[in-house]
């Protein structure tokens, strides 16, 4: 049965090394996450957080950077006393990722810092470094430790390679040094409470499990739109585009959660196996009629973007699942930058009764993932005497709003500390998702799929409506501020 993990339980002593500690991910997400864990009293009395980066910095300077990042980026009010106490556990080591001697020296440094041999403490290694140096860091950790026999947990965050081939190569490479169960492959969407709720709602409610079956569903729509552009990540984004950046992991993971068979026992292995089953059954569009791309008008004037760039910042596609239960149920996904709002939501449109009229609205289950976290059911109620049909939407919050709720990176770190794999990806899932994305990329190149311009702040290219129209449906737009 589902494992209940007791809330507020402290974890065992550990050491966390953040490789790439001076980068954005560490500053914006990881340091505030550590603060959340400290504020929620989830951390043990003995733990060490050590930043490892190329930048030369003293311990004092790094602690000051750590505190500033927590104050600047925490979503909760920061208590100076808790922050000061946390900062005492924070250390820094400046070293080059390629330099094996630096890693040897680092392990002596851990010994001095903890008074213990490194192997005597669980070691979390968060690789918050550019993909180009993943390998150096993994190899150097492994070659300076008994990597497969010690309790070393490697946390890797997307992007996992650039296509199926490079992801496979990466996994083969790191598997030489570590066992598969030492990896925590992280997609931060799986740390969001609302995304976790998709599984829990389906697992625990017969009303939903009965409705959200291929035989009952007319179509599924997954939307993840953002009201900001590529910001300071323009150089990276221009190389990869929206399909690799957003669809490959975040959107396909949501799709899998909405359509997979829910295991009774939701442990990591069962969930990963079920998600892999769906991801490997996705039929790629393979035809231009199933793909719409766009680019926001001001994109080419962003710094670091090629002035002739054809990189899409918007993509919508029509997919199918090659499984008996989902056969012929179209799944539309769309995502884009610099649109009218920040909103991520799933619409599951149910089939109508055969006797219902074309103009009757269907029932819908809508799960809003962010910024509002809500579930909405749309129903209709006919009132003959006054000759009207009442459209009813019942809405309930699914937000985690009690003491102890934490943001995504804090929850995911806690999962790693507990060796809990429910909310992490497996290698096969990542490869299956790349297979879909590689076919889309190939289609884009082979057919030179048009990348239409759309106005900044708009709802994206109008052509997206052609996708749903292929099956006689329309996008059901939900607005986050309603
Ligand atoms: C990242 C993408 O993985 O997710 C970004 O690389 C995107 O381009 C971000 O903006 C969205 O995350 P969230 O949690 O703000 O929806």
Commentary on this structure:
The structure is a single chain. The chain is an alpha/beta fold and 482 residues long. Helices cover 35% and strands 21% of the residues. The protein has helices spanning 24-39, 59-73, 80-87, 100-114, 131-143, 164-175, 193-204, 206-211, 234-259, 268-279, 408-417, 427-446, 464-469; strands at residues 14-19, 47-53, 90-94, 123-127, 152-157, 183-186, 217-225, 282-283, 291-296, 314-321, 331-336, 343-350, 364-370, 374-383, 388-397, 451-454. The strands form two sheets. Strands 7, 8, 9, 10, 11, 12, 13, 14, 15 and 16 form a ten-stranded mixed β-sheet that branches. Strand 4 (123-127), helix 5 and strand 5 (152-157) form a beta-alpha-beta unit. Helix 6 packs antiparallel against helix 12 and helix 9 (234-259) crosses helix 10 (268-279). It is globular, with a radius of gyration of 24 Å. The model is unreliable at 1-6 (pLDDT under 50). The structure holds 6-O-phosphono-beta-D-glucopyranose (BG6).
Question: What secondary-structure arrangement, pairings included, does this model have?
Answer:
Elements: E1 14-19, H1 24-39, E2 47-53, H2 59-73, H3 80-87, E3 90-94, H4 100-114, E4 123-127, H5 131-143, E5 152-157, H6 164-175, E6 183-186, H7 193-204, H8 206-211, E7 217-225, H9 234-259, H10 268-279, E8 282-283, E9 291-296, E10 314-321, E11 331-336, E12 343-350, E13 364-370, E14 374-383, E15 388-397, H11 408-417, H12 427-446, E16 451-454, H13 464-469
Parallel strand pairs: 1-2, 1-4, 2-3, 4-5, 5-6, 7-11, 9-16
Antiparallel strand pairs: 7-12, 8-10, 9-10, 10-11, 12-13, 13-14, 14-15
